[in-house]
Amino acid sequence: MRYQPNPHFMRLFELFTSAPDSIGANLQRELGEAHSDTPLLVATGTDLVLFPGGGHPPTSVDFRKGTRGFFEITAVSHLGLAIPYLARLRQLDHPSCKKDARELIAQCRVVQDFNSVSYWRDEVAAAAWRGREEKIADLVDYTCATTADFLERAIENPKLLDFGYLRANLLEGDGPEAVPVSFNDMMAATFALSALDSVYRSLKWLHEQSIDWARLMVLVVGSAGRPSAGLTWQSNNVCSLLYEASGRKLDPARLIIAPGGPTIELEKLADSAAAARIEALYRKFWYSSLSSVEMSRLMWPDYPGFEKRIETAPVVEDDTETVDAMPVVRSVDDKRAIVTRLRYVMEDPGAQIATAGMQFVLDQLSANGNRPELVELPGFTYTTYPTSNRK
């Protein structure tokens, strides 16, 4: 017979914790009502939503997929992975390898024909990219042309897809038959460009809100890329974004990462009654996670307490062989750290892919008053891409 707890013990258990009217649930509700004026910020994988409290309506900003040019620049960035992935498929004798390569070649040529300075300047019109449109067009043309040419030659000469050749002549760009600009530089540039507009708009929106950062409650909910990614302060790019936006006033202990938390349907926030219900749901969720904090401090004040610390990022030196966290980028030409970040986000299932290009951009925007024109971008600012002549 399957084991079942005795109902008398179960009722004793429920009285404290699991019943809707339990002691714990009552305390959580009381704490929520007592702090109903405390600002609450909910971050999803794509949006930031601020509930100011006191019955004021929420406001929001889309910081990821709403980024103008996000899909375009990311599609180009992926070409740096597409060729090595095709090389691996060839090693595995995958039957669609040549077909996939030809489709990619054809689409690169289509994008080349469509790509223009005017498209990036007038249609994408990303505020943080203003003044960089001509160079972006050059980068896109170069990457698509190089990808198509490399794959056309590789179909005829499969030795080009050997990883030793790929690393030296395409990724690193230091081999005897190297391309003009390494794809490591290209990927660093596209990651940084994507981060630049996303971080700029997010900081701008956060600075426009009247947030009491010391009191702010933060919930980071939903998935952020891979299901296993962004589960810690160090690996979730929203944490560092909010911390810098607050002038480092945000209390890390008041930020909860809850991938299983309820997600927001933004269109429902336009209805005041629905918005109030959603806000109440999130406030309850926040206090259900942290109500025990207050009680532990009341019960055991003379014992060591918990403090959430922001760990210092590791530095990559010439002799560094491994890292256990996302390394810091010290300058725009710190190529070893920049490429290590690219490897790190692919190798650690807990890392968010987008964090590869974010930290260096965030540090600069925070230091210069959120002025994107002053930001130096790795693989871009001091890198010359062949001119596309596409206006």
UniProtKB/TrEMBL annotation:
Record InterPro entries: DUF5624
Pfam families: DUF5624
Start and end residues of each DUF5624 domain: 67-196
Name of protein: DUF5624 domain-containing protein
